[in-house]
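Researcher: Here's the sequence for the chain we discussed earlier.
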Amino acid sequence: MYVPKHFAETDPATLVAFMRRHGFAMLYTAGPDGPTASHLPLLIEEEAGEAEPGTVRVAGHVARANGHWRAFDGETEALSVF
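Model: Thanks. This is the structure I predict for it:
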């Protein structure tokens, strides 16, 4: 995604703090049935141990009534926008 230099935020601590404050995000996937987007509450968990510093895990839940859960097959990439 193109971000003009004067709008770019590159500090991991600032980005993680923003995601924690604004945990209701839009999650996008694109699969065989086309693009899908859902508004979801997401949690940001900082990785520990062997992970590269600044690495985070985004965790959330998709209700069974929301067919978007079918896109999560371990292969399909997703984009979350906070």
